[in-house]
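Researcher: I'd like a candidate sequence for this fold, 350 residues long. If you have to choose between options at a position, lean toward the conservative one.
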């Protein structure tokens, strides 16, 4: 794939005193540059072991912080495990990196209220992740009884102002795979928000116009969504273009073009409810290219450029910075980054 788009080239650090508003898009002849506040990634899979070591620098070179997903084997279900995982990430970071992993807990039917209190007190756990059991990669230990066994924990999360991050798909095999997000909104998210209107919810990696409408209909500051580069750039044709394309397979699966367009409109509108979450999900090559390929797209080395391409093509580069660098920390109640990153438009080959 040959692209002409904005390629991140360097992070410039400014001390707070010298902080000034980014100058924004500058067109200097053929050389186009854009300087924005350093982005964060609000949905990232770093894995562990060798894979962690192989991928972490790709995120750390562009992003200031990342919400690190807990779907390891075994999953990160306790604050103690999150602390250990965090240490193993910090250990393999490049020495000059100030990348900060923001840890999450994997919700199960047996998570306790005390665990949520511990998580909040730890100062390193920022959210709890809901995987409906069987919905996606390493979700077999996920939630089976959200409105029953998990309810006390959700109430504690309201008390602790701890966001619930949601993989929003039903797992019923009788529901068509392309409808699983829409049905999840109707049967789980809408009742959940009615029951717990003060719970902060992030609908992760949205893929449909139904999700866009749902998020826009909720109270700002309580419900938001992350958006991946692949769901902004590809539709479901890309899964079958010239043959089966396993590297375009992720969950929730890519949808029709009308859905892609709705998501592009939502993020380029300047709405505060949508922010960057790459869902970069590395898998070993032989697990993608085989008779039963697993779900997940690895994108962190190129994600920021791809987002910039989407905003540029929509004529909305002036809205890019809010999506990449402001809306996420504002929703989580965290400070925006001080450092900045320069994007330079250039041709490159992936
Ligand atoms: N998105 C994916 O297709 N896969 C993710 C899990 C997830 O985010 O659902 C993974 O961990 O591989
Ligand atoms: Zn997911
Ligand atoms: Zn994910």
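Model: Candidate sequence:
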């Amino acid at each position: 794939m040959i692209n002409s788009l904005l390629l991140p080239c360097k992070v410039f650090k400014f001390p707070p005193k010298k902080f000034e508003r980014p100058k924004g898009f500058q067109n200097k002849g053929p050389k186009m540059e854009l300087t924005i506040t350093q982005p964060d990634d609000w949905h990232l899979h770093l894995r562990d072991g060798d894979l962690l070591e192989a991928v972490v620098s790709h995120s750390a070179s562009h992003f200031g912080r990342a919400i690190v997903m807990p779907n390891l084997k075994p999953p990160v279900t306790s604050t103690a495990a999150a602390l250990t995982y965090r240490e193993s990430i910090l250990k393999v970071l490049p020495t000059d990196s100030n990348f900060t992993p923001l840890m999450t807990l994997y919700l199960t039917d047996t998570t306790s209220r005390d665990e949520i209190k511990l998580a909040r007190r730890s100062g390193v756990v920022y959210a709890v992740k809901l995987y409906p059991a069987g919905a996606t990669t390493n979700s077999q230990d996920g939630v089976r009884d959200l409105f029953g066994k998990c309810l006390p924990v959700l109430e504690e999360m309201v008390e602790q102002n701890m966001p619930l991050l949601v993989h929003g798909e039903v797992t019923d095999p009788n529901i068509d795979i392309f409808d699983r997000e829409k049905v999840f909104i109707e049967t789980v998210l809408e009742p959940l928000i009615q029951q717990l209107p003060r719970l902060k919810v992030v609908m992760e990696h949205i893929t449909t116009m139904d999700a866009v409408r749902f998020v826009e209909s909720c109270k700002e500051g309580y419900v938001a969504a992350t958006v991946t580069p692949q769901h902004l750039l590809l539709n479901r044709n890309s899964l079958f273009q010239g043959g089966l394309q396993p590297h375009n397979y992720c969950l929730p699966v890519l949808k029709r073009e009308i859905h892609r367009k709705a998501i592009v409109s939502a993020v380029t509108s300047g709405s505060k409810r949508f922010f960057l979450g790459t869902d970069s999900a590395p898998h070993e090559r032989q697990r993608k290219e085989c008779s039963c390929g697993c779900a997940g797209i690895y994108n962190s080395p190129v994600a920021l450029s791809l987002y910039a391409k989407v905003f540029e093509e929509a004529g909305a580069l002036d809205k890019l910075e809010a999506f990449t660098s402001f809306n996420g920390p504002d929703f989580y109640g965290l400070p925006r980054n001080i450092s900045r990153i320069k994007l330079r438009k250039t041709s490159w080959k992936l």
